[in-house]
Amino acid sequence: MKFFIDTANLNEIREAYDLGVLDGVTTNPSLMAKEGIKGHDNVMAHYKAICDIVDGDISAEVIAVDYEGIIREGEILAELHPNIVVKVPMIREGVKAIKYFSDKGIKTNCTLIFNAGQALLAAKAGATYVSPFIGRLDDIGQDGMQLIEQIVQIFSNYGYPTEVLAASVRHTMHLLQCAEIGADVVTCPLSVITSLLNHPPPESWCGILLDAASRPTCINTSEMRCLILEESFQLVAFKTNRRFSATVRSKSN
Ligand code: E4P
């Protein structure tokens, strides 16, 4: 599975690339605005700067929503660098534009995919990537991951070369579930990628430790490693100078 980073922040892009696991970048107008990048020339220069850092596909989104406008903007973006992928919204005019770009050999990322039918349309039009928005579906009580599963299945049924780029990824479980399902790409904030490095935080142990007066107490957890905690138990620890003694009792007591 490819890892893309979902940001326009050059420091974060550098950090992810330096880690050696980054395959590409996705941006959108709000991510550019967040970095204070305004005006056509600045936006173009920023895309070039991203392309100079990462050797991989860089999604650059069009603003226009009419066919001619999307084509005009997309062609300018595509000329910036061979790694630019023109990001086109899932709307009627967008589908037509994806077909146009595909015929011209320009790579596209069809964004704002919220159902499998839209993904199928984009694939038929020749999109290089489709971007289903997991997090935003979860936000409205629909199962974003189920959509990834559906699209992966449909593309595999017919051998579509379009890659499933899971977007709007909010946490590591999203990323791992995408990997289990077989999404081709995940795009996410840097924090989701770096969270994969983490061990269980010692604080999660401390959180359930109580002192003799039943107050939470800070415990040197390396000294407690020998204790195996089960969910049905709480650990009661007593601090004696620099040493700890502990008893384990059932929560129901
Ligand atoms: C990526 O291409 C999308 O623009 C992005 O993942 C959207 O994420 P959000 O739902 O957090 O805005």
Descriptive terms for the model:
globular; disordered C terminus; 11 helices; binds erythose-4-phosphate; eight-stranded parallel beta barrel
| Fraction of residues in helix | 40-55%
Mean pLDDT: 86
- How many DSSP H or I helices? 11
User: What value does the Rg take, in angstroms?
Assistant: 24 Å
Bound molecules: erythose-4-phosphate
The helix-and-strand class reads alpha/beta
Strand content: 15-25%
The largest pleated sheet is described as: 8 strands, parallel, barrel
- Report the uncertain regions: 201-208, 222-253
Explain what the structure shows:
- The chain has 253 residues and is of the alpha/beta class.
- The protein contains eleven helices and ten strands.
- The strands form two sheets. An eight-stranded parallel beta barrel has the order 1-2-3-4-5-6-7-8, surrounded by seven helices. A two-stranded antiparallel sheet has the order 9-10.
- Helix 5 links the parallel strand 4 (84-89) and strand 5 (108-113).
- Helix 4 crosses helix 5 (92-103) and helix 6 (116-125) packs parallel to helix 8.
- The longest helix has 15 residues, at 144-158.
- It is globular, with a radius of gyration of 24 Å.
- The model is unreliable at 201-208 and 222-253 (pLDDT under 50).
- The structure holds erythose-4-phosphate.
- Erythose-4-phosphate is lined by residues 6, 26, 28, 111, 131, 133, 135-136, 167-168, 187.
- Residues 6, 26, 28, 111, 131, 133, 135-136, 167-168, 187 line the site of erythose-4-phosphate.
